Amino acid sequence: MDQLDALRIFLRVADMASFTQAAQSLGLPKASISMAVQRLETQLGTRLLHRTTRRVQMTPDGQTFYDRSKDLLADIEELQGMFKQGALQLQGRLRVDMPLGVARAIVIPQLPAFMQTHPGLQIELSSTDRRIDLVREGFDCVLRVGPLGDSSLVARPLGRYRMINCASPAYLAAFGMPQTLDDLSRHRLIHYASALGGKPAGFEYTASGQDDTVQFVAMAGALTVNNSDAYQAACLAGLGLIQVPEPGIKPLLASGALVEVLPQFRAAPMPVSILYGNRRNVSRRLQVFMNWLGEIMQPHLQG
C-alpha cells in the first residue's frame, strides 16, 4: 500500500466516521484500514483520529491534515488526467475570501451557474471585511478592494470601483442637501474603520479631473463602524453621510432609499485585485475560478 492509498483510506474513514464502514466501501479488511491510519499517525507523529466504541472523530491535527490531503489528492488526480482526452472536470476544494458586499451583490447571485458547470468543486467562501492572512489561514485566493501593501503575494488587478457619497432622504430632510465642501461643517459623517480605535480621516474627495490628488475634510460624526453592512444600515437609519463603492449601493439609489450627494466631490476610485500565493504552478481549478471571478466583476468596474 503506497502513501496515496493511505491518504485515500484516511479520508474515507474521516468522511464515514467509521473504520468498519470505510473498509466495506473500499472492499478491504478492517485490519488493513486500521493499520494504514496507524502508519500515517506514526509517520506524522500526531494523532489524527479519536477512536471510541461508538464513533470515530478527527482531532484538530486530523482536521488540518484532512483538508490538505483532499487538496493534494485533487491536484494529483488533475495532474494524472491533464493529458487524457476530454479531461475537463475540475475537482477539489477552493478556499476564497472577499468583502461582504462583493459576495452578496455580485458573486453569490452568479455562483449557482458556475457550480453547475463545475459540480466537482467544493468552495469555501469567506466574506468578512477584515483582511485575512492568505498564507497563514490557508486561502487559495482573496479579492481585495483598496490599496495593496507590500506583499509576496501575486496580484491580478481587475479595475477600480467608482465611489459614491450618499445619505438617506430622512437625513437630508433634517440637515439639508450639501452643495459645497463648506456645507459639510453642518453635516455628520458615519466613520468606517477596519480596526476600531483609529482616528478617522474624514470626508475624502478628489477635485474633478485630479483623481490622483486625494484630500480630506474633517467632519463630525458620533458613530464609527467596522462592517460594511453596519455602515450601510447606519446611513439608511439617517445617522449621516457615507462613501461607498457604487455596485453595492445601486439598488438603494434606484429605489430612492438613499440619495447621492456632492457627485462632483467623490472619493478616489478604489482598486480591486485578486491576490494569490506566489506559487510557480497554480492549480487549474484556481485558474478557472479566478478567470470567472474577473469576468463577473468587469461590468462593475472602471478600467
Descriptive terms for the model:
single chain, 39% helix, 303 residues, alpha/beta
Short description, anyone?
The protein is α/β, with parallel strands linked by helices and 303 residues long.
Question: Could you describe the 3D structure shown?
Answer:
Helices cover 39% and strands 20% of the residues. The protein has 303 residues and is of the alpha/beta class. Strand 3, helix 5 and strand 4 (121-126) form a beta-alpha-beta unit. Helix 1 (3-16) packs across helix 2 and helix 1 crosses helix 3. The longest helix has 22 residues, at 60-81. The protein starts with a helix and ends in a 6-residue tail after the last helix. The model has no long low-confidence stretch (mean pLDDT 86).
